[in-house]
Structure formats: structure tokens, C-alpha cells
TrEMBL record, chains A, D:
GO molecular function: phenylacetyl-CoA 1,2-epoxidase activity
Cellular component terms (Gene Ontology): cytosol
Gene3D superfamilies, per the entry: 1.20.1260.10
PANTHER family per record: 1,2-PHENYLACETYL-COA EPOXIDASE, SUBUNIT A, PHENYLACETIC ACID DEGRADATION PROTEIN PAA
Any one GO biological process: phenylacetate catabolic process
Name of the protein in question: Ring-1,2-phenylacetyl-CoA epoxidase subunit PaaA
Pfam family, one: PaaA_PaaC
SUPFAM superfamilies: Ferritin-like (SSF47240)
Species assigned in the record: Filimonas lacunae
InterPro entries, per the entry: Aromatic_CoA_ox/epox (IPR052703), Ferritin-like (IPR012347), Ferritin-like_SF (IPR009078), PaaA (IPR011881), PaaA_PaaC (IPR007814)
NCBIfam families cross-referenced by the UniProt entry: PA_CoA_Oxy1
């Protein structure tokens, strides 16, 4: 079949909301875009374990310790689903790791910020997971089957995490002055990086049109960002805290919140590797990988020995 | 009920400290699936610790008071009062040490829970019944790793030998009852740990045989954990673990 | 006097935290004489920290009160209130990182003390006069090590390059005044750190030249320490350092 | 000169309290005994830095932190004097390190016990340094000049350390119930190991006679031990604590304190390597040594380069 014909069938399915499955024909650019996006998403889950993992040993109660540990473990699970989804597109997990460790593959820049106080665990849950969900919920309906199904599982857990984060901050908001200060300071640090999580403004986001046509993306960056700001501007009132944006104001006409200009210099800096924790995060993952090499080798060697022994028994 | 509380704290502290150590792996494991597995075991152990702490708090509480809670017990006692087994507080080291520590411990814990189910204390029996299912999995998982590493590569075998050398001196304590246990054994609510040594050794022997490893012969054993005499490691662990509770006293989290 | 107190705390916290880091080497140095040398520098820095804390306590104290002391300032504030330079809290890493951290810092500190001696605050001037003698030795010692490692073996040269890569992003903060400094510069009691950048760079350049190392070109710089926005390392350091004061509140030691 | 004649001159000097100096003739056994004893003493200072060093980062006040750091640093200095004294007998520092790291050379077993609470810093100062001083003061008059002179410097600082340790415990004794409990528990743990620091009973100490003839030793183990017990039994009263020995009792007739039997099984166990921290202490030193190898190599390489450059300049 000619590629043009394939392409028509493919786009037809997409237009009719029929999922593309691993064995279906797909344009190479669609495949590459998905590999890039899914692996980046998987890496974000794995790197995302680090800033929160940073507080597991210091969680202030046994209940919080268990909740946090379970949450970070969930993220490892999300990584697992997503790596598997990417693998259906013809890339191995080891290849993806290599791209991460070499710096070729990206992950969400938000995880290059440090978690400095316990309140950050709340702010990450509320704002970072909150922004992630805005991005991810539409992905549950994306055109690639394995990715869409993985996202359904991810989103279910993420929204649970976000509620936990909000609840953590709510407790702090009702706590001592020190706790309230800690929480407000944390929101101040996490707000803008969270707003930046939606990526560049639409006019600076050239791939959006194609991705929307392929239904990998269903809303533009700015649409999602506006939705996020609208939600948070309301929720922060319940907490009795403020968002660090003097320009934040309800716009009656637009029926949306207006908000201040984003510092894209910082955004680009962090993306280029110059965030507070870029080096530290990647080093942590590379160390885990390098220090684990002998374990993986041993597991492989043992599996092979076993197979041989079994074959010998069966042959006898 | 003082010896009972001490016994419960011994069980709670041991599972908490080992859970805490395992949780240090979260995000740093050698294989993603195993990162999840060790975090899961950490979660199980912390869950078990909470049940023992909650019961200990109930037993230690003065009538009408509410100041003793699972968190006050975990976060507001210093090392001198912690009664965990020394094995639990040993550093993670490499993956060999972590999985061997788990296997040595879970193999013991299983036998403890088995007897505890038959003990006179109904609540402890209920906890044991719930926990033993988790422990069964912990033994299986860690035992498979002992065999995999012992019978894997030359490197992994060497690391297992090192792990045995490091950890073995901390195993004797598991079978050496201290005063509060002796009292509990008499009264029927504590497990007679001395009687568990042979079945425990058999299980270890079996796995070691399959892994091509040897059980060390009659070696010197270090004790003290159950009496609050620890290794130098515990103090640092507690300083980290307890920081927030200590720094912001009386806060809700 | 609030900005003055903040400034004093910035100076005190920086010297304490760096002294603390250096003290971690005690007993673990690569050469016995150098173990003594780094401990000595740690002692000097802790001594300087005490002078700044004592002065800060005096300035922060409400009339008639005695609750603010050098120890309450060092042990009972959390990371959010610590104003040390980020450079000071970075981990010791290997010997290359430790001696480069010292050289980068002491070279700055010397210039600060030099100006402080001329400042309007008599007590700060007196502290600076005493401390600058120690700092002179710290620069000499660490500078010699920079040259020795930079021009030593291939391995040591490589490690120096790595140390520069790790530490350089934390140097810019030394020359970027924050609000309390700006106010102090206007009033004459704070050092105009921006003006120190050129002389500092010259000194570094000179040592690097001799060591066969290059000063990195215009790189991104991380700030925040003076405003209480630290790296993830400080929290762990403080949890350890403050444990006893937090665990046994109100005790004399 | 015949060895017999040498030996007579040598013993004559010793009998007349004239110091033996490095270039003097000395019996080989004297030399070997001294090398063993001085290097063992030096190693003890270096290993002895570890249990106390364990609390430097956790000292509860800035003053205590400075005192402790200075003390541990002093011990490094003592190690330095003593290594130098041993070097005059024809052994290098590297050789001595090697003997330590291989387990051939011993160090005082007391440092194989852990420091578990802040009170241990006091107990180590009071009891361990106290016992050390009992052993060391007579050594200031030992027959080998460099060793005797090193010991004069060591003893001056040690007695200062002991007073600091006692004062630390005194403060705790006047403190909260928790602090008093911490201190008593610490004394309970350190008492018997300190009593054992004087070595085996005289009847089990075969080398004592020869060492006393050579004036390397001036009192027997049991004499020194008795003196130590007598002093501590009085000092503990000032602290308001007790020593963990039910048999401790003033004996009017002997004008000494009687005390209970020593558990030599534990003593021998720890000497054989089975103490709570034997492995840990030696590992810490070996790690410091191994991790420092590249530093020492770089220093040597640089010194040689410099020398060559200087020679080239001078030749030109």
C-alpha cells in the first residue's frame, strides 16, 4: 500500500476516535513524537521520585511517612507503565535510560527545584501534581492505545496524590504560625515553576498544531495553563494563603483570572541544565544505575544458569 | 503492663527502623521493579510498626490521658529507649547487605508471628495474623535474591560473602531473650525466641545451600539493642527521622 | 537593628556551616598533618561564628531578656532562617572539593574582613581584625593545595576540574547583595560585596594559572542562601547538628 | 665492642636514669619492644579520634563543639609525636600504618566500644583519659629519650582533657533527670572497659619484669589499676553517680578500694577482634587511607616536579 493511502486510513481512525495500536501502521513522525513524549513522561515520573523521596526519612508522623512512601512508590509504578507503553513503539527501556543519563532525553523541569521544607511535599502535591493532571487528563483520550490506557491508570492515582497534597497544606494552614509561614513560603517558591510546567506560550510552541491533529495533544499550553491558574486561584483561598503574583485578578469579561508575566529566562535556564538541582537529580539516577550494574548482571547470569540447568534436566 | 509495653516497643521499633532503612532505597534501587519491591516492604514494615505502637500507646496510657500516641513513641524517644534489634539499624550498604538483612530478619519474624498467633494476647495475635502474610512474601522475595546473588556472578557471590560477614554478628540477638521477654514468656504473651533458633537456622541453611554460601560457624555475637545499647548508627538515623517533631513540638501534621 | 542582626547571622551561619563541614573530616583526612590542618580551620571558623552569634544575640535581645544566646541562634533556628552562603553547605566530597571550597571562600572572606575593619561598626571591625589573621593562613593553606592538586597527577588534575564544575555555580552569591546588605552598605556597617568580585577573581585567577586550571567563563549562578532558600543538603546537616538541643529543650550542657 | 659490654653500658645508663637516645646502642629486644609499644600507642591516639569524633557534628553547644574538636585534634597531634618517636627507632610511618591496617599492630581495645550518647564524651574523658594518664605519667620518665619527651607533651594535654570530661559529666549531674540518667548509663558502660585498659593481671603479664628492668614500664598493671579505681571511686561521689560494681568497697586495712572480678572473657574477645566496633574502626581508618591515596600521590608528584623545575632554573 502506498504511504499516502496508509496515512489516510491512519488519520481517518484518529478522526473517528479509534485508537492506534502497536501493530497498526503509523507515520514515522507520529511514532517518534510519541516515543519522545512518553519516554519524557516516564523519565519525569522517575526523576520526580527524588525531590519527594528527599523527605521520606524525615516525614513528621508515621501516617505521613506511609502516605509519602506510597506516593513515591506510585510514581515508580507510573514510570513502569509508561516505559512499557513506549516499548510498544520499538524502543527498549535500556535505550531510554541511556538517553536520560546522557542528557539527550528530557524530563519535566519542575523536578530540578529542591524540596526544602516539609510544606514542599504539600506544595508539590497540590501544584505540581495539579498541573500534571491538567496536562494528563486529556491524554487519557489520546490516539495511541497503550499510552491512553497507561494514562488512565496514572490519572486515577495522580488526582488522589493531589488531594493528599492539598490536605497536607490544609493541616499546615490550621497549624502554628511557623507551620503557616513554612507553607506560604513553599507556595511562593513552587507557584511560578508550576505555571511554567505547561510549556512555552502557544505562539512559541510550533509542534502544537501537528500534535493536536494527531490527537496526542487536545488543548494548547495556554488553554491548560489558564485552567490551572483559575483552579488554583480559588483553592488557595480555602487554604488562606496567597499566590505570589500581584497581577493575579479575576477578569469578569474573560471569565478567567488574569495573571502576571512568566519569567521565561528562568524557564529556559532550567531547561538548559541550569536549575538548582539539574546536576544533582541526574547524578542520583546515574549513580543508582551504575551502582546497580552488578545486581543486574548477577540477575541475568543467574537466570541463564537456571535456564541451562533446566534444559539439561529436560534433555536427560 | 510495663514489660508488655517494652515488648511491644521492641517489636514496633524493630519494624520501624528496618522499614526506615529500606525506605532509604526509594528512588535509588538497582532495578525499577526492585525499587518498588523494597519500598513495598518498607511500607509493610512501617504499617506493622504502627499497629504495635498503637497498641503500646494504649497499654502505656494513663487512664484519661491522651499524650502517648504512635507518634510520640516513634518520634520523642531517644536511642537509649529504642529497643530495636541491632540488625535493623545496620546501614543499607549495597544490595547484597540489604536483601540479606531482610532475609535474616523476615525468616525470624515469620517464626515470631507464627507463635504470636497462638499467644495469650488477643490483639498481638490479630496483628501477627495480618502481618504474617506480608512476611511470607518478604521471605520469598529476599530469599530469591539471596540465591540469585549467591549463585549469580563472581562479583555478586563475593558481595554476599561480605554481607554475611557484616551481618551475622547481629543475628544472635534475635534468639537471646532479655528481661521483659522472659517475663512475657512466663506469662504467655511473649514468643520464646530461643526456641526459634533451630528452625530459623534450617531455613537460612537451606537458602544458603542453594545459593552456594556457607553459614558461619559459631561466631561472636553482638547484643544490646533490646536493652537500648545500640550501634553508633542509630543516633544519626533518629536525629534525621525525628527532626520535625523535635523542632516543632506539639504541632499537628 | 533588624538588618544588622540579619547580616551578623549571615556571617555567623556561613562560618559555622563551613566549620561544621570541615569538622566532618576530623579523623578521616588523607594525611595526618592535613587532618590536623582542616580541623584547625574548622575550629577557627567555629570560633569566628561564635563571635558573630554572640554579637547578634546582643543586638537581637529584648531589653532585660536573656533568652537569645549564641546557642539558641545556632541550634534553634530551622533552615528557612539560616542565611549562610550555599557554598558553605556543599558536601565535602573528595579532598579536591574540600580544599577548593575553602580557597574560594577564604579568598572572599579575607576581602570582606579587610573592608569590615574599616566599617562603622566597631565590634565587627574588632572581630574582623582578629579573624583576618586566621583567614590569611586559610587562603595560604588551601591555595597551596589548589596548586598541588591542579599541578599534581593526572588524577588530581581531573578531580580539580570536577571540583570547579561542582562549586563554581555557588560563587556568584558571594557578590550579590541582598536587602539587609544593601541597607548595611548604605549605613556603612556592611561590606559592599559587589565591589569584591574583581579582586577576588584576580586572586583565584592567579592560583588557577599556577595550578594549570581555568576560571570558568560566565556561567549560571545559584543564589538564595542569604534569603533562607538553600540546597537540599542543609536540612540534613541541621537535623544532625541540632538534635540534642531539640531533643532536650532547655538543658544546660 | 662485644654485645655484652654494650649491654652493660646500656643497662648502666638506664640504672642511672640517663636517657637512651636514637644513636645509642640498644638491645634489639629493647628496640622491638619500644617500636611495638610506641606505635601501638600512636595507633591508639589515631583510632581514638573516631569514637569521640562521632559526636563532633552533634555537640550540643558551640562551646562544647569547639572543645571536642580541639580535643580530637590534640589526639591527632599526639599520634604525630608518637609516630615521630617510633621513627627514630628505624620504622617508617607508612610501615606502621600498614601494620595497623593489616591487623598486625594493635591499638587500645577501649576504642572498640561505641559512643552512644553525648554523656559518653564525658565518660571517655573522665575514665578513658583518666586510665590513660595513669599509664602515661610514668612513661614521661621512661628510659628512651624521644618517647619520654613525647609523653611529656602528651600528658600535659591529656590531663586537661580528663578535667574537661569530668566537668562535662558534672554539668550533666546537675542537669535534668534525662541528663542524669544519660550520664549514669554512660558510666555503667565505660567503667569496666576502662578498668581493663591496664591490661591483664600481673600474674598473666609475662613481659612486665623485663620492661620494668628497662624502665619502659615503672609500675605493674595491677598497681596502676588499683590507683585508678581508688581515684575514680572518690571522684564519682562528687558527681553523685555510682560505679557499676557491687563489690566496690573501701578496705581500711589495705588502704585501697576492693573491687569486683574482671570479665576477662570480654577483654579477650575484644582483643581478638570481637568488640562492638573493631571492624568499623579499622574500616574507617583503611577507608581514610585508601581514599587519600590519590591525594598523597599528587602531593608527591607535585613536590618532585617542583624540585626538578628548581634544579633546571639553578642549572640555567
Amino acid at each position: 500500500m502506498a504511504d499516502v493511502q496508509n496515512e489516510n486510513i491512519f488519520q481517518d481512525k484518529i478522526d473517528q476516535e479509534i485508537k492506534i495500536e502497536p501493530k497498526d501502521w503509523m507515520p514515522d513522525a507520529y511514532r517518534q513524537t510519541l516515543i519522545r513524549q512518553i519516554s519524557q513522561h516516564a523519565h519525569s515520573e522517575i526523576i520526580g521520585m527524588l525531590p519527594e523521596g528527599n523527605w521520606i526519612t524525615r516525614a513528621p508522623s508515621l501516617k505521613r511517612k506511609a502516605i509519602l512512601l506510597a506516593k513515591v512508590q506510585d510514581e515508580a509504578g507510573h514510570g513502569l507503565y509508561l516505559y512499557s507503553a513506549a516499548e510498544t513503539l520499538g524502543i527498549s527501556r535500556d535505550q531510554m535510560y541511556q538517553q536520560l543519563h546522557s542528557g539527550k532525553a528530557k524530563y519535566s523541569s519542575i523536578f530540578n527545584y529542591p524540596t526544602l521544607t516539609w510544606a514542599d511535599i504539600g506544595a508539590v502535591g497540590w501544584l505540581v501534581d495539579g498541573a500534571a493532571i491538567m496536562n494528563q487528563v486529556p491524554l487519557c483520550r489520546n490516539s495511541y492505545g497503550p499510552y491512553a490506557r497507561a494514562m488512565v491508570r496514572v490519572c486515577k492515582e495522580e488526582s488522589f496524590h493531589q488531594r493528599q497534597g492539598f490536605e497536607l497544606l490544609l493541616i499546615l494552614s490550621q497549624g502554628t504560625p511557623e507551620q503557616r509561614r513554612m507553607a506560604q513560603e513553599s507556595i511562593n517558591r513552587w507557584w511560578w515553576p508550576s505555571v511554567m510546567m505547561f510549556g512555552p506560550n502557544d505562539d512559541a510552541s510550533p509542534h502544537t498544531a501537528q500534535s493536536m491533529k494527531w490527537k496526542i495533544k487536545r488543548f494548547t499550553n495556554d488553554e491548560l495553563r489558564q485552567k490551572f491558574v483559575d483552579v488554583c486561584a480559588e483553592q488557595v483561598k480555602i487554604l488562606g494563603f496567597t499566590l505570589p503574583d500581584p497581577d493575579l485578578k479575576w477578569n469578569e469579561e474573560r471569565q478567567h483570572y488574569d495573571f502576571g508575566a512568566i519569567d521565561w529566562t528562568e524557564f529556559n535556564n532550567v531547561i538548559r541544565g541550569n536549575g538548582p538541582c539539574n546536576k544533582q537529580r541526574l547524578d542520583a539516577r546515574k549513580n543508582a544505575w551504575d551502582n546497580g550494574a552488578w545486581v543486574r548482571e548477577a540477575a541475568t547470569a543467574y537466570a541463564e544458569k537456571r535456564k541451562k540447568r533446566q534444559a539439561a534436566v529436560e534433555a536427560a | 503492663s510495663q514489660p508488655l509495653v517494652q515488648y511491644l516497643l521492641h517489636l514496633a521499633d524493630t519494624t520501624l527502623i528496618l522499614g526506615h532503612r529500606n525506605s532509604e532505597w526509594c528512588g535509588h534501587g538497582p532495578i525499577l521493579e526492585q525499587d518498588i519491591a523494597i519500598s513495598n516492604i518498607a511500607l509493610d514494615l512501617i504499617g506493622q510498626a504502627r499497629m504495635f505502637y498503637q497498641y503500646a500507646a494504649e497499654k502505656a496510657q494513663q487512664p484519661g490521658a491522651t499524650d502517648i500516641t504512635e507518634d510520640s513513641l516513634a518520634y520523642l524517644r531517644d536511642g537509649i529507649d529504642f529497643k530495636n534489634l541491632l540488625l535493623a539499624e545496620q546501614q543499607n550498604g549495597d544490595w547484597a547487605i540489604t536483601i540479606l538483612r531482610q532475609f535474616l530478619y523476615s525468616s525470624w519474624q515469620y517464626l515470631v508471628y507464627e507463635q504470636m498467633q497462638q499467644g495469650t494476647d488477643v490483639q498481638m495475635a490479630a496483628i501477627a495474623e495480618k502481618a504474617i502474610k506480608e512476611t511470607t512474601y518478604h521471605i520469598k522475595w529476599s530469599g530469591e535474591w539471596v540465591i540469585r546473588l549467591g549463585d549469580g556472578t563472581e562479583e555478586s557471590h563475593k558481595r554476599m560473602l561480605h554481607a554475611i560477614e557484616v551481618l551475622w554478628p547481629f543475628t544472635g540477638e534475635m534468639f537471646t531473650p532479655v528481661d521483659f521477654e522472659k517475663e512475657g514468656i512466663q506469662q504467655g504473651w511473649a514468643v520464646d525466641v530461643a526456641s526459634l533458633q533451630q528452625p530459623w537456622l534450617q531455613r537460612i541453611q537451606q537458602a544458603f545451600d542453594e545459593a552456594g554460601l556457607s553459614v558461619p560457624q559459631s561466631q561472636w555475637q553482638q547484643t544490646g539493642g533490646k536493652k537500648g545499647v545500640h550501634t553508633e548508627l542509630l543516633g544519626f538515623l533518629l536525629a534525621e527521622m525525628q527532626h520535625l517533631q523535635r523542632a516543632y513540638p506539639g504541632s499537628e501534621w
